[in-house]
Amino acid sequence: MSETKNTFTLDGQPVVFEAGQTIMNAALAAGHYIPHLCHHREFKPHGSCKVCTVRVNGWLSASCTTPASAGAKVESEAPDIQEARRRIVQMLFIEGNHFCPFCVKSGNCQLQAVAYHLGMEDTSLPHRFPSRAMDASHPDVVLDRDRCINCSLCVRASRDADGKDLFGLSGRGIDTHLVVNSSTGLLKDTNIDANDRAIQVCPTGALLVKRRGYEQPIGERRFDAQAIECEFESKY
Amino acid sequence: MPQSSSLERVLTRISARYRDEPYQLLQMLRAVQASYSHVPQSAMQFLARHLGVPLSQVQGVVEFYAFLHETPRGRYDVRFSDNITDQMLGSRGLCERLCQHLELTPGQPRADGKVTVDYTSCTGMSDQGPAALVNGLAVTRLDVGRIDEMADLIDAGIALEAWPRDWFAVRDHIRRSGPMLDLQMAPGAALEAAVARGASSTLAELARSGLRGRGGAGYLTAHKWRFCLEAPGMERFIVCNADEGEPGTFKDRVLLTRYADALFEGMALAGFVVGAREGFLYLRGEYEYLLPHLESVLERRREEGLLGGNLLGSRVGFDISIHLGAGAYICGEESALIESLEGKRGQARVRPPFPAIRGYADKPTVVNNVQTFIQAAQISAMGSAWFAEQGTEKSRGTVLLSISGDVARRGVYEYPFGVTVKEVLADCGAGAVQAIQIGGPSGHLIGAADFERRIAFEDLPTTGSLMVFDWSRDVVGVVQNFSRFFQHESCGFCTPCRVGTTVLRQLIDKVASGHASAADLDELEACGMVTRSLSHCGLGQTAPNPVLDGLKRFRPVLEAKLLGGTDGPGFDLDAELSEARKISDESLKEGQHG
Ligand SMILES: Cc1cc2nc3c(=O)[nH]c(=O)nc-3n(C[C@H](O)[C@H](O)[C@H](O)COP(=O)(O)O)c2cc1C
Ligand code: SF4
Ligand code: SF4
Ligand code: FES
Hints:
The complex is a heterodimer. Chain A is an alpha+beta fold. Helices cover 24% and strands 15% of the residues of chain A.
C-alpha cells in the first residue's frame, strides 16, 4: 500500500505527514485536535506538560515530541488516555492557585478550556495553595506566578521570537518556578513589551498585559464562542 | 557578603581554573559554594557576564542542585543521610541530639553563621550508617559519643583536618566475592589484549560475553558501543556513570575505591573500540572524599602510558577528567547526567535520540555504569567464555548486591545471576524478614511470597540495592521514606512526576498519620498509575513503585492505618483546623516577643 508511506492513523482516521513532523503537528495541520498546553506550533517542542499523551503502537508518549512514523497506530481519545489527561490537568490546577471565577483570563484560558474539553468536573486531589511571588513591577506587564504552569512557552517565545531571552525555569521539583532574567529578577528591569510574543503565548493568566482585564463580556470570550477543540479544528 | 573586588578576583581565578568554559559552570559553582558557603547573587551575575550565559541559567543551576545555596550555610555544613536504613540505625535521633547541643533548627544556619545541620538523600553508606556529610566529606558509623564530640569540635571551631581520622574512614565490607571481585588484573592487561585483537574483534568478544549494563536498564553493552561507533560524527565521548544515587546502593563506591584501575582501563577500552579520545567520570558529590584517590590513579596511569596522549605508546590518545555532581539523584539518568556534565540543570532529554547517537555536546557518547566498564575490561583481558561461565541464559556473569537494613552482615555480595532471594537472605544473616526492597526505591518492595524468585534481568532485576526489613519495621514508614525521596528528587520538568510525586507524598503521609480513608488509597493508586505511565523519564516512571507495591503486596498493613477502617470518612476536622491553630499560635508567640 503506497499511501501508508507517509500516513499514520489517529483514532482510526488516516493522517498524512511530512518527513520530520511530530504526531502533534501533523494532526493539527490535518485539522485534528490533540489536547496540549506546553505546545505551540511556532516553537520548539518542550514535551513537559504531558497533556498531549497518545498511545503509539501500544506505547504511551507525548505526541508533541514523538516523530510521526508511517503506518503507526495512534490512539488519542481512548477512555483511559482521556482519564489520564484529566488527572494531569487536575494536577496542574492543584499545583498552583487557580481561582477561575476571579481571573481576568477566564474564558480565554487554555488551561480552563482543556479542562472543559476533558470533562474535568472537580480537582479531587488535595490542593497545595502554594505561596508564590507576584511581579507587578512593570508598568505594562504583570507576572502572576500563582497561575503559571511551568510550560516554558514564554521562555521559548522570548528567546526565539522576541530575541530577548527574558525568562527561565528555576528551582527543582515542586519548587520549579519561572524566573525573570534581570539583575533584580523583576520585570521592571527588562525590556519586555506589551506586544511581545512571550506574553501572547502564555496559555494561562500568568503573563498578562495590564489594564486589559475583562475586556470581553462573558459569552463573547475566546472559549465561550467555541470549545478549544473546535477552535483548533477550524483554524487549519 | 564578600567584598566585591576580592569576590571578583576569586571568581576570575575559579573560572580560569575551568578554562572559562560554560560547560564547567557546575564545577565553578561548586567551588564558589565551598569558598563562600553559598553562591552570592553577585557571583551569579559575575559568572553570567563572564561566561556569556543568561543569568536565569546560572540561577537555574544554583536552585537545582541540593548542595548549592543562594543564602549562606554555616561554615560547618552537616547533612545527615536520610535513607530509611540510616533512620533504622537511629540517624533521626542523632540529628536531633546534635541540633539540641548546637541550639539550632535543622535546615537553618545558626545565628552566628557557624553551623547548619540538615538532612540529605542517601549518601551511599547504608552498610556503615548512620552517616552524614560534613562540608561534603563522608563521616560514618555515627553514634551518641561521636555526635557529642562533634558538637564540641564545632563549638570550639576546630578545623575538619583535626577531627578524629577514623570518623572519615569508609570500609569496603566485601562479604562474598566471586570471579569479578577476585580477579587480579595487571594495569594495561585489558588494553594490550584489545590492541592485539583489534577494535572490531574486541567488540565481537564483548558481544559474545552477553554483558548487560549494570546501572539498571540492562542494555547489552556491545550494542550500545556499536551504536556509538556507527553513529555519524567525527568526535565521540565516553562517560562513566558514578552517580550511584539509588538509596541503599554502595557497590560502585567500593569499586571506585578498590578497582579504579580496572574502571579507567574499561573506559579507555571503550574509547579504543568506538574511537573516542576523551572520557568523563561523573562522580556523585557525596563521594567527593574519593577524589584525591581517583585523581592519583589517573595520574599514575598517565605516567604509565595507560592514559593520555600516547596510549600504550601508540599515536591514539585517551584521557579522563572527573566531574562532581552536587546532590541530584536525577543526574544518574544518563541524559540528565550529560546535561549536568555540560554544566546545566539535570533534566532528562527527550529520548530517542539516545546518548550513543547524540550525547555530550550532541556528539555520540557511550554512557555506562562503573561496574559495566570494569567488567568490559575484564572480558577483554580474560575472554568472553570466562565471563559467561556463570549466570543465567539472559543474565550472564555475576551480580553485586549492596545489602543493608536488618541483617547481621551488611556489605557487598557477589553472586552468579539467578541466585534466589532466599539464599541471599540466609547468607547475610537476615532473620524474621517482613519485606525487602530490591533495586532501591525505584525497584520493588516484596514480601516472603516472592523470596523464591531469582535475581536476574528476566525475573528480579536490580541496581544492586537490597534493603531488608524485619517484623519490627513499619512498611508504611518505608513507603513514606521512599515517596519523600522521590518528591525531593523529581527534577520538576514534567507534570506527572513534579505534581504526582507531591500528591503521592501527601497521601502516604496522610495514611501514615492515621487520617486517611479508603478513598485515599484509591486516589494513591490512580495517581500512581498516571505518574508511572505518563512521566518523561525513568525517575517519574518508577517513583510510584513503593506506593503501588505497598498497595499490591502489603494492603492490609496500609488498611490497618485507615481512619474508621476501610469505609471511614476522608475528612478530619481536627487536622483541617490544625493549620489555622498553628497560625494563631504563631501570632500569639510573635505577640509575646513583640
Ligand atoms: C532516575 C535514574 C537514576 C539513575 N541512576 C543511575 C546511577 O546512579 N548509576 C548508573 O549507572 N545508572 C543509573 N541510571 C541508569 C542510567 O540512565 C543508564 O541506564 C546507565 O548509566 C547505563 O549504563 P549501563 O548500560 O552500564 O547500565 C539511572 C536511571 C534513572 C532513570
Ligand atoms: S508564565 Fe505562562 S507561558 Fe510562561 S511558563 Fe508560566 S504558564 Fe507558561
Ligand atoms: S519524570 Fe520526573 S525527573 Fe523525569 S523529567 Fe519528569 S519531572 Fe523530571
Ligand atoms: S503539549 Fe506535549 S507535553 Fe505538553
